[in-house]
Amino acid sequence: MERSTRFLMLVRIPYDRTADRVASRLSTHVKDLPELLKRSVTWDQGVEMAAHAVFSVATDVPVYFCGPHSPWQRGSNENTNGLIRQYLPKGTDLSCYTQQQLNEIAASLNERPRQTLGFKTPAEKLNELLVAAGDAFTA
Q1: 8 in any annotated domain
Q2: Which residue range forms the structural domain that includes residue 128?
Q3: 10 in a domain, yes or no?
Q4: How many domains does the chain have?
Q5: Residues β-bridged to residue 29
Q6: Contact at 8 Å (CB) between 83 and 1?
Q7: What's the N-to-C CA distance of the chain in angstroms?
Q8: Is residue 1 part of a domain?
Q9: What per-residue confidence (pLDDT) applies to 49?
Q10: Long-range contacts, 34-42 (Cβ 8 Å, 24+)
Q11: What own/partner pairs with CB < 8 Å and gap ≥ 24 does 8-11 have?
């Protein structure tokens, strides 16, 4: 989730969430983003980002880790997690979902107006950001 626009991309991690697999899958998706969107990644203290150095070297994107037991350091992410839970309740077996299905959920959330964005959608705000920067991106 991009912090200023709230634009969301969901990435399917097949099989398990080992650090190497997470770093590899995220690297693949982050490489396709415009440079403007590759400033940093914020992560909590989960072991799935133990290979953060591999991710950073592959993408040239630094990883910022929030303090332990400090969800306020990732408020936008916590809010977005709540929105995702409307589609994928806690305890849902995510292995049953394809990348296409996850893309559809993300698209639905990216077309949902947000009060924090002046009732614009994340897709509209991302477009404004990229047009202002002269960059292009197709989700």
Answers
A1: no
A2: 19-133
A3: no
A4: 1
A5: none
A6: no
A7: 13
A8: no
A9: 81
A10: 34/130, 34/133, 34/135, 34/136, 34/137, 35/135, 36/129, 36/130, 36/133, 36/135, 37/2, 37/137, 40/64, 42/3, 42/66, 42/73, 42/74, 42/77
A11: 8/80, 8/84, 8/106, 8/109, 8/110, 8/122, 9/106, 9/139, 10/84, 10/102, 10/103, 10/105, 10/106, 11/99, 11/102
Q: With respect to residue 12, please indicate whether it lies within any of the assigned structural domains.
A: no
Return the HEC string of 25-83. Answer: HHHHHHCCCCHHHCCCEEECCCHHHCCHHHHHHHHCCCEEECCCCCHHHHHHHHHHHHH
Segment 108-116 shows an average pLDDT of 96
CATH number at residue 76: 3.30.420
Single pTM value for the model: 0.84
Across the range 109-115, mean pLDDT stands at: 97
Determine the 3-state secondary structure of 87 from DSSP: coil
Run of H or E residues at 7: none
Q: What is the DSSP letter of 95?
A: G
